[in-house]
Amino acid sequence: MVAAARTMRMVSRAAALPRLSLPAVRAAAPSVAQRAAFSTSGRYRKSEVIKETEVPVTVYTPDPKGAASSEHFSIPVQPGSQVPVPEPAVEEDENVNPLEEKVYNQMPRTLQKMSVMGKVIIITGGARGLGNHMARACAEAGAKAIVIFDANQDLGDEAAAELHHKSGLPVSFMKVDVRDGNAINAAVQNVVDLYGAPDVLVNSAGIADSNIKAETYDPAMFRRLIDINLTGSFLMSQAVGRAMMAAGKPGSIVLVASMSGSIVNYPQEQSCYNASKAGVIQFGKSLAAEWAKYNIRVNCISPGYMDTALNKVPALDAQKKIWKSLTPQARLGAVDDLNGLCVFLASDASSFMTGSNVIIDGGYTLY
Ligand SMILES: NC(=O)c1ccc[n+]([C@@H]2O[C@H](COP(=O)([O-])OP(=O)(O)OC[C@H]3O[C@@H](n4cnc5c(N)ncnc54)[C@H](O)[C@@H]3O)[C@@H](O)[C@H]2O)c1
Description:
Layout: H1 2-16, H2 22-28, H3 32-47, E1 54-62, E2 68-76, H4 101-106, H5 109-113, E3 120-124, H6 129-140, E4 145-150, H7 153-167, E5 171-175, H8 181-195, E6 200-203, H9 219-247, E7 251-256, H10 271-291, E8 296-303, H11 317-325, H12 339-346, E9 357-360
Parallel strand pairs: 3-4, 3-6, 4-5, 6-7, 7-8, 8-9
Antiparallel strand pairs: 1-2
The protein binds nicotinamide-adenine-dinucleotide (NAD).
Residues 124-125, 127-131, 150-152, 155, 177-179, 204-208, 228, 232, 256, 258, 303, 305-306, 308-311 line the site of nicotinamide-adenine-dinucleotide.
Pfam family, one: adh_short_C2
Protein name: Short-chain dehydrogenase/ reductase
Family: Belongs to the short-chain dehydrogenases/reductases (SDR) family.
């Protein structure tokens, strides 16, 4: 009877579906065995409440003589017991400590793969902000050489000198505007001559315009932003990708996009920036598909609101309060919050990862 009534309900629902034919709905209906499995777990889910009074534990400890000893005990469970939540610690360590070869050789295989040991890394926009901190992270994670491409001569020189001074690694700065294909090609060839073909490109150079309504957006400004954020990602990837292909080297390209490529920010209007970053994400996916055959991986990092100079504009102060209130972690990202992800995507630990867009936003896009 119950089965008959269920069938009737399915038939009447199917009648309400304008585009699905009845045989298609029948084909999709679960078999008797599947329905039994679903209803069985449903029945248990309602009645079963897990309330253990103790947690059995086994602890294995190496003893100094090399033999493993084990201990068994139980932890009593007290209903409603809670551990107090500590305030998050704020760490500020500006040192750059490069991974030494002898330390690398002693590391477990998993951690070795998570390093960028011996890799030549080009970072655009590395003169300041997120790019600069990702450059430091790559230096700490074992890079053989770091090359900063940036349009800002003074900041770029200063950043390269500082990173070399702090890490002792070979670091170069090349004044390159990511809109200039010829300059990029010349600079990438120079990297090949100096250090060998690049293993990694981190493309962080970018600009943002916000609080501009689409109906009054100056077309010249629109074109300029697209040229830097999107065409710049293409020109850089093309030049570095060609160098990797010519050397027959596997490589990793990391494009810094933005969560704005997947969502529309609130409350500021910034259609051009959002469109540019959506373009970067789709460009990255297309490139990943095309270049997998060359063993070149392409992934995007999509940050949420980050506490960098890009956002340190007095006009944005009021909006920052709204951004924080819409972020589950209730803060802007720190300038080094992309570091771990950048190193991971650059490293061989992510060797089966290509065409991904990883959002790193304190939870902003959850709401
Ligand atoms: N800060 C954020 O909240 C945020 C959020 C999401 C995505 N992003 C993206 O992260 C990247 C870095 O942002 P940031 O906050 O570190 O910015 P930033 O302004 O601090 O640094 C950007 C760097 O790019 C360089 N640059 C700009 N135009 C260039 C050009 N045409 N050619 C070469 N270099 C150029 C600048 O000189 C600067 O050193 C950008 O692509 C940005 O869109 C930032």
